[in-house]
Structures are given as C-alpha cells and as structure tokens.
Amino acid sequence: MSVMKTHAAHLEWGQLAQDAVVGSLKKLVPQHQIRNPVMFVVYAGAWLVLALWIRDLVDRRDALAAFTGTLDVWLWLTLLFANFSESLAEGQGKAQAASLRQARQDVQARRLSEARHDASSERVPGTALRPGDFVLVEAGDVMPADGEAVLGVASVDESAITGESAPVIREGSGDRTAVTGGTKVLSDWLVVRVTSAPGDTFLDRMIRMVEGASRRKTPNEIALGILLVVLTLVFLVVTMTLYPYSWYAVHYAVHRGHVVGITVLVALLVCLIPTTIGALLPAIGIAGIMRLMRANVVATSGRAIEAAGDVDVLLLDKTGTITYGNRQAAGFHPAPGIAKEELAAMARLASLADDTPEGRSIVTLAQQLFPREAQPLGADAVLIAFTAETRMSGVDLDGGRLPIRKGAPDAMRAWIGQHGGAWAQELEMTIQLVASRGATPLVVCADTRALGVVELKDIVKKNIRERFADLRRMGIRTVMVTGDNPLTAQAIAAEAGVDDFIAEAKPEAKLARIRAFHAEGHMVAMTGDGTNDAPALAQADVALCMASGTQAAREAANMVDLDSNPTKLLEIVHIGKQLLMTRGALTTFSVANDVAKYFAIIPAAFVGTYPALSALNVMDLSSPRHAILAAVIFNAVVIPFLIPLALKGVRSRAASAKSLLRRNIWIYGVGGLVTPFIGIKLIDVLLTWM
Amino acid sequence: MMPVMELDTALLVAAIALGWPLGRYMAGVYGTEPFWARRAAAPLERAIYRLCGICAQEEMDWKRYAVALLLFNLAGAVFLYALMLAQGHLPLDPEGLRGVGAGLAFNTAASFVTNTNWQAYAGETTMSYLTQMLGLGVQNFLSAATGIVIAVAMIRGIARNKAPGLGNFWVDMTRTVLYVLVPLALVFAVILMAQGVPDTLGSYVQAHLIAPFTSGKAVVTHQVIALGPVASQEAIKELGNNGGGFFNANSAHPFENPTALTNFLEMVAMLVIPTALVFMFGRMVRDDRQGWALLAVMLLFFIPLSLASAHFDLAGNPALRALGVTQAHAPALAGGGNMVGVEDRFGVGASTLFGTVATATSTGAANCAYDSFMPLSGLVNLFDMQLGEIIFGGVGSGLATMLAFVIFAVFVGGLMIGRTPEYLGKKIESFEIKMASLSILIMPLLVLIGTAIAVVTAAGRAGVFNPGPHGFSEILYAFTSAANNNGSAFGGLAADSHFYNVALALCVLIGRYWTYLPLLALAGSLAQKARIPASSGTLATHTPLFIGLIAGVVLLVGALNFFPALSLGPIVEHMMRLPSHPVVR
Asked: Do A230 and B452 touch (CB under 8 A)?
C-alpha cells in the first residue's frame, strides 16, 4: 500500500469542495479569467448583462429587469461552475503536495571537504548545498538533497517519496546509487555527491508538478485551445452581426417587432461558444496528472503523459516485466534407468547449499512433486555452496564418500570427467532438447554418474499474454529486451506473446533500436533503471525510470515510477490515452450541443419580427424568455454534471481505434446532439411550473 | 421528381466515369515517374521553360510557392485591369465598345483572377472580343490552374515524407494548362460548336423581327443579336469552374447553352475536374480509398441538396396555386413547377440541378434566374456555397478546403481515440490547426460582416430591389458568392455600384488568398513531417464512420454559423409562405 493512496484517503471531499467554492469565487478576477479565452467571453458578457440589468432597474422596466437579472445570475453561475471544476482539481493536487511537503524539512547537512568518510566536515543548512558538494549521511539522518552515493552502503527508508515502507539499499557503486532528498537513512552511512540545486530537488519538482505551478500547456492542449478560440471568434461574429440583421428586418424588411436585445445576443453567444469544454479543460489536464500520481508515477512534464497516449512501440525488459525476476525449476528429466523420484531427491540435496533463487526453486519443486523423498541431511553431510567460479553446488554425504553435485552442463561434464565417469549420449540429447526450448538445463550427478537434467525456465507472469493482446488491439507493438541468447529469447517471446524481441541486448542495442523505430516514425516507450540505460531513456519518447534507478537514469527519463514496477508502463499508456479521449469527447459534446441551442434561441429572438419563425421552435418551449433562459441554464448546469467525468476521465478500454471512435461518437457526438433538446425542454417545463 | 433523380444519377455516373481516368491521368501529370503524356509533349514543355527562364528541377518550399503564386496572379490582375481600361483603343472591337470604368474593372479583374467570375456587367455590351479572349479567357485558364496547383501542393504536403519542398509552381502551372485544361477545353469547345454555339470574330448581326412591336412611341422592327468567340470561352468557363458568361444571360442564353444535351454536358464539365482531383488525391497518397471517402462526403451533401432544391421548386408556388393557376408536371408546361425565370427548353428540374452543380462547384454559372427559385431552392444554392465550397468545390480550391475540414475531423476524432491526431501518417499539431482555422475562419467572417455592413449602410441597401426578407437573402447571396469565389449571382441586386464593386472585390480577394495561403503553409509543414506507420490504433480515414464524422464537422463547424442568417432570409421566406418573388426583369 502506497503513501499516495494513503494521501488520497486524507482527501476529505467536504473540505475540498468547500475550498473549491472559495477558490472559484477568488478566481472571478479578470487576471485569472483572461487566461481562458472562452470563459473570458462569458465573463465580459456577465458584466455587460449586469450593466443592462441595472439600466432596466433604473428605467423601472420590471418584467425585463427580472429576465435580465435571472439571466445574469446564470451567467455568473456558469463562470463559477467553471472555476469550481478547476479549483477542485487543483485542491486535490494541493492536498497531495501538502503531504509531500511534510517530507521536505529543513535539515542540517554535514558537508565534507572531499569525498572520504573521514574527511573534515562542517555543519551547513541543507539549503546551502550546491551541486558537486559532498555530504556524509549516517543512520537517523534525513537526506539533505538529491544526490549520488559515491561511498558506503546504507539502508534507506524512501517511504516519504515512494510510499514503499520496506527499506532499500543504496550503495556507492553499481546501479543503486541514487538518493533522494527527504528520505531517511536507517543504518550505516553514505558519502553523497549532491546533484540538485536547492529548491530543485526531486521532491520539489514533484510538489511543483502536483500543484500545477510548473504545468505548461501540452501540444495537444495548445492545438485544442486554438480550435476553441477560433470557434469562439466565429460565434462572436455570428451573434454580433445578428444585431444589424435584426435591425434591417425590423426597419426595412417587414416593419414589425423590436430589434433583438443585447441580453439575448449575449445569451446566444454564451450558449454557442464551447463553454463546456472551455470550462473543464484546465481540470482535465490536472486530473490527468493526478491519475498518474495515483498510479505512483511522477511525470516531469505534462507532455510526457500525452506522449504516452501516442506510443506505439513498447520496449520491455524481459526480467521483471514479462517474467518473474529469476529462472525457476520447471521439471526433472532423469537419465535412462533412473527414477524421477531419485533425480528429484538428489537435485534437492544438491541445491540445499545453493542460495540463489534458482537453487531455492529446485528445492521447492522437488518438495512439491515428491514430498516423501525430502529427507533431512545427516550430521556428517558437508554442504558445498554455489560459487560463480565452480558454477555448481552440492553436498558430500557419508563422510565425503558420496558427492552429489548439480551445475551447468559443461561444468558438470568437466567434473565427471575428472572423477572418471562417463557422459552418456542420451544425457547430451536431453540437454540439447531443454536448451532448444529456451530453458536452462542443469545436470545432477551422484558420485560419477549423471542422474539427469533439471530444467530451469523463465516463468512468464500471469495474465501478461492477455495484456499484450490488449495492446496489440490498441495498435501497440511490444518488443522484449533481454540479455539471453536468441534461442531462449525466442521461446519466451512466443510464450509471452510479444511481437518482437531483442536478444543478447546491450544498452547500445536498445538505443540503436529506438533510433530505428524513430526513423520509421514510431513513438517508443521504455523502462530502465541503470546508468547504462540513460542514453536510451533520453532517446525514448516515454521513458519510465524506476525509483530505485540511478540518478543518471532518473535525469534522462521523463517519468519516474515510485513503485519500481516495470509493468506500470502499460498503465501509463492507458492514462495518456484517457487524457486525450476526455478532451476529445467533451469537445465533441460541447460543439454538438449548439444545434439544440440554436433551435431554442433563434425563434425566441426573432418571433416578434417574424411570427412565422415560431415553426423553428421544435421543442415547443413555453415563451421566448423561457426558451432563452432554459438554454443558458442548460449550458451552465451541464458543467457541474460533467465535472466527475472530467476528473475521472472517460472510460478507456483496450480496443481498436475503430471501435473506440464508434463508441465515443455515439455517446458524445450523437449524445451531445440529443441531450440538450431533452435538457432544455425539461428546464423550460420547470421554469413554467415555478 | 423521377426525371430529376434520373438526371442526377446520369450526371454523377458521367462525372465519376470521366473523373476516374482523368484523376489517374492527372496523378501521372504531376508525378515524378515517367509518364506517356509528358514524354509526348516534352519538347513543347521544355521550350516553354526555356522561353520563360524556368528551372524545372528547382523545388520550392511553401513560402516560395506562395510568393510565385501571388506574383503571378498579381501580374494577371494588373494586365486584365489595364486591358479593360484600354479596350476602346485596341483592335478586335467590332461593336466599338469603350473602356470599362475603373471600379468595375477592379471588381472584374479581382473576380476573374480568383476564379470567382462575379459579373457586375453584361458581357455583350461591356467587353470587346479582345478583352473576352485575351483577358477573361486567359484568366479562365490561369485561375483554374491556380486552384488546381494549390490542391496539388496540398496533396504533395500530405504524400511526401520529410520533404523540404512542395514542387515547382511554374512547372505545375505549365503542366496544368498544357496537359489538362487545354486538351479538355479544346474537345469540349468543338462539341459545343457542333451543338450550335457560335465561335466567331464577326460583328453582331441585325435581325428583322417577324412581329414588330411598339415600345414607348417607337416601333421596334430590328433586333441586334450578339455573337462572338463563345464556344471557346464556354468550354473553359464550365471546365475551370469559372462561370463567367460570355453573355449577360449566362448559360440561359441559347448561344451559350443551346440544347438539353449541352445543358447536361455543361453540368458534367463543371463536375469532371473536381471529381478527378479527388481520385488524383487518392492516387497520389497511394490509397484510392481516401479519394473515395472524400467523394462520399461530397455526395452525402450533393445528392440530398440537389433533390431538395428540385423538390421545392417543382412543388410550385403556393400563391399561384391559391389563384387556381396550374403548375402541373406536364410536358406542355415544360415539366411544370415554379416556372418563373426558367428557360422552358430546360424546365425546372434541369434548372435547379444546374443551380446546385454551379453553386456546389464554385462555377456560379446559371441557366435560369436563381432569384426566382422558391425560397428553399434558393437556400440550397446559398448553402452549397456556405459549406465552404467543399461539395466538389472549385477546381482544386474545393479539395483544399475539404482537406482543411478533414484536418479538423481528424483532430477531434484523434483525440476521441486517445492519440495525437494524424492524417495519412502525418501528425496534426497546433501549427496545422492554426493554419486550417485561419483558412476556414475567414469565409464566414467575410460573409456575415459584409452582409451586416451592407444592410446598415444606405449604399448597401440602395442595391436591393425587393422588400421583405428576400432583399436580405439577395445581399447575403452576393457576399456568400463573392467570399467563396463562386461568382453565382442571385440577381435582384444592383451590383454595379461603387459600394458593391469595392466590397465584393475585397471579399473575393480576401476570400481567395486568406483562405489558401494558410493551406499552403499547412502543406509545407506537413511535407516536412515524417510519415507515421499505421497500426490498428490508427484512426482509419476511409471508413463510413469517419465519412460521417467529416460530414458532422463540416455541418457543425462550418455550416451551423449561417443558421441565424439563413433563418432571417430564405427560411423565414419559406415559412411566411409569402411568395415574395420578384417580377422577372
């Protein structure tokens, strides 16, 4: 259970909503409203109608004043609803930022004069540290800044950042050197080279990201913004030119009725411009980042989230993502004349001294298959531990008279050869057979006789095949990256159902493949954690770094997974798609709404001049004023109704583009066409009642 | 109604049957691979380049392409303007016509250079043969070619992969005229002559009237019959979607459109190049389905609109019905229906269909008085243009505007499936949306603001002959026609005034260049992008679903803007059931 989720539980919706109400009122200042051009038009209209209302009051035109006043109230409500949705989304972010900020305390750091444990040191405040400084942290200390461990080994509690309560090991060499400001050292010590400037630590960036301070508009958001501004501009002209048209009709064409009122034109304008999407656009963007946070992923830019939706190639590390971390025993293949039970029993004995996960899996499998054969060792047994040099482990029974060994075939062959045994042809064939399946054969022998072969296999994660099939349906290719030989890689690739694989992969191979994909126009996502992954991470369009990764990898990546779970990439793709889909769906809905609003307002506005136009009143609305009010009220209330959708995102499923488009066109396009006809009619009925 | 449906079907079948091979031919003309026609005329083509100092291999980026286009059109306009002013001093003027006034000359030059062919004059009493041939006729070819090369550049932008250039403007223009327009016009002019269209440099003839009549106090015994090099002009007028008639009566004149067969062929001629361009598009992007999809969107609008127009006009005028006048669909009544302003050798059905074709294709030709259509038939004409000339549209420019709408549809559709939108492998980003918006934005603004200015100024209102909402429709029609470079005239509006000459010429110029320069920029940006390979996650742009989406976007983003204005014009005219029809002049 992660801290983020705990944080989410802290969010009290009542409090959040209260804050959001206050926030939405505070945002009613021109400086804020002008940032959203669509809503600024509503804002200007609301002030204009307010002035007209005062004029109506002064002129004592009571009936008209009541209409103008009511309309103005709804215009202001439209603005408040829009501000509310943004405040609510920001509030969620702030609540999370607040709990992150608790981790960012001002700490004293011990700055070293040079990178030695025993170098002279001085006490300085954490904020005085500059990149390149060396600090010493010991058990109980809080890490004063982001950095890279250069010396020492320590266990560190990173729960403040990652939410993972189990301590992690950080050491001065290898791939686990990255340390994060705000985390706590539990044992031992580290000498850390500071890599972040004050106020720009990983934690600071996370806080900024969720608070939205550094949230820049993403490319698609900008493009959509342009479209909305253009639509607003056109509708502005459409409504403004209606005044002269109406004036001409009244004074020259038919000499009847009154020229259309400014209030009515403002109402029409507000209804026509895409206020629904305009109001919810900021909230959708923030909500997208929040969804990512809830998945325990920190993106360094909103752009990366959007890119995730576009990715069509996933480079996935085999180990940890597709298969469980290590190879496991999957079967025993006895040599001719040997019972399977005997082979299993001997393999178990030989593996008791093997502490590697592979060794333990042999013991487990043997005990599972033949529980009765599991004998305890005699007192005189001598365990021979597995070492990388001998590449075998075993046990000497009966005071060394019965050596039992298990190990890699070539090591065992040499061992049997040394002890005068024979290497059977059948055994060699079994070894070849196992290897050809992509599995690892281990040979077990007792004394000088080979008993048979243990098959070690990569175990493909459950359900991973289905997820890859989902991805394929979404048009995303999966590429497995592994250090294994091509034969092994192919077998696992086939079992997991990936589209392609890179065998015997070196970091350069990854980089080269990403470049090749780019040249073909693909968008590539990958995960990585080591320093040698950094170039590939920097090249990939979506680069997810494990929180346990090195500083270099973190810097190169554009997302950090706090859970260090490589499978997370699949989730991120969904979140990215969901963000875009929500925007597209609400834009479509917003624009499709216009048809009904025209049919409500146009006959209402001109029926005085042209009574025949009442034929356009297809909703049979009760009166012109009710018709206009109903349209404006519908336009306002649809915003709060859609806030949950904006915050949660539309349902994203693993489906082909075709079926997604069909579904969304029906729901948001056709739905957007029909809903306002029903809604406006209902509101009109309510208005007539009251 | 049945004969209209048959005529409609025959027309579309003929247009597609001719457009398909022509589209393939044109793809070859503009392609880079060896092509038989280019090989055959290679010496001629090379001679033209040598003569004009054109380096045919040179690739132009969008800016140079646009500058070349602008300069070329500017030169054409200045030449045409000067020619009109000076025609009284030049040869080939058998009727001794004097120079054209400056305002009208400006309006006409702007109008012919932009393929609009709005005519605020009567050809037979204003333009000398020299002006008709060297000025208007030449621009009929060149403005059509300009429209086509815009589409070609736009298609190259989509089809090319990481290319810096869009092609060479001079080469594209030369090839368009040489390989496409001249051969087609030649064949069609000969067919028209065979059907009785004159083509002569001889002067007008005097005819003795069989039945002399008295006008005022004078007895009229003679009639002057205007002649001229008509067939050669008529052919390119329809093929190039120009629409500027040799005579004032345009295709209603028996010397422009003598028979039912020429009426049909002229409709086919208007449709054939726009249809071919759609197929050429499919060919050039190496996916014929994309061309068919665009054609499907066009037909989705064209077929219902053309039938609706015929339906309302064939239904006849309710005011006449109330007086007991028969408008029965009988051969003796030329097919019946609302015969006001209709040539009885064509009848109502063939006239409304001609109107739909002429307004949908930006030709703007007329074989009847559109002003006398029933309100909703007139609305169809207006609506055809207000859609942004995307139903077939002008030669080239129609396809280019359609592609701008497709970019919008792709954008919305792409977002709805959760991907950065792409069209045929090209990413649609903010620059593309900005340019497509700029292009599509300007037309409704010109129409709506232009109409607004006209109705509030005395100068604008002075041109209106008809009271009631029909007067409003007439002004709306004039600005719609000019801003869309259509040139179709509703009539009923005195357009040769200083106000309308200047206002409509400005609409024509802004409507042309503001619309298409951003599209060239868009093409330039698309050409530089790398093509993204398609997968099952890619939005397919040839499916019925996407065809529906484009149609929806065209309606919601484009046409819906005109709903209020149309409500105060033809819609209310219809609803009032007041036959506010003008008397035929």
From this structure: no
Cα torsion angle, A637, A643, A644, A650, sign: positive
* Distance in Å, alpha carbon of A581 to nearest chain B alpha carbon: 4
pLDDT in tens, A587-626: 999 999 999 999 999 999 999 899 999 999 999 999 999 9
Instruction: Give me the pLDDT at residue A163, please.
Output: 60
Q: Which of B376, B419, B443, B563 would you mutate first to test chain A, the one with the most A CBs within 10 A?
A: B419
Instruction: Evaluate whether residue B585 is within a structural domain.
Output: no
**At how many degrees (to 10) do helices A302-310 and A219-248 cross?**
90
Question: Any idea which residue has 């345009």 for tokens?
Answer: B250
Q: Do A249 and B417 touch (CB under 8 A)?
A: no
Report in angstroms the alpha-carbon separations of B558 from A388, B158, B161, B541, B562. Answer: 73, 23, 30, 20, 8
Cβ count near B116 (within 10 Å)? 34
In sequence order, which residues have a C-beta less than 8 Å from that of residue B58 and are 6 or more positions away? B168
Supply the pLDDT for residue A4: 40
Determine the length of chain A: 690
Give, as one character, the DSSP assignment of residue B529: S
Cβ contact B418–A581 (<8 Å) = yes
Would you call B101 an interface residue with chain A, using a CB distance cutoff of 8 Å?
A: no
| pLDDT tens sequence across B531-568 | 888 877 788 899 999 999 999 999 988 778 999 999 99
Helices (H), B315-429: 318-322, 347-360, 375-386, 397-416
Contact B414 A584 (CB under 8 A): yes
In a domain, B113, yes or no: yes
B51 C-beta neighbours (distance < 10 Å), count: 8
| Single-letter amino acid, residue B493 | L
Task: Supply the pTM of this predicted model.
Answer: 0.85
Query: Which DSSP letter does residue A11 get?
Result: -
Per-residue confidence (pLDDT) for residue A9, from 0 to 100 = 40
Residue contact A306–B420, C-beta within 8 A: yes
Alpha-carbon distance of B276 to B35, in angstroms, equals 17
pLDDT, tens digit, 9 for 90 and up, residues B46-72: 999 999 999 999 999 999 999 999 999
Candidates A224, A241, A661; nearest CB to B451: A241
Catalytic residue, chosen from A56, A72, A146, A317, is: A317
The verdict on whether A317 is a catalytic residue reads yes
Indicate yes or no: CB of A224 within 8 angstroms of CB of B416: no
Domain assignment present for B69: yes
Count of domains for chain B: 1
**Distance between A264 CA and the closest CA of chain B, angstroms:** 13
DSSP state of A377: P
Provide the shortest C-alpha distance from residue B439 to chain A (in Å): 11
Q: Which domain holds residue B336?
A: 2-577
- pLDDT number for residue B566: 94
Q: What three-state secondary structure class fits A372? A: helix
Pair A442, A410: CB distance under 8 Å? no
Q: What is the pLDDT of residue B584?
A: 37
For chain A, give the mean pLDDT: 85
| Chain A touched by B138 (CB under 8 Å) | no
B204: which DSSP letter?
A: P
> What is the ipTM, given to two decimal places?
0.92
Name the B residues in 439-468 with CB < 8 Å from any A CB.
440-441, 444-445, 448-449, 451-453, 455-456, 461, 467-468
B572 domain-assigned: yes
Q: Cβ separation of B556 and A521 shorter than 8 Å?
A: no
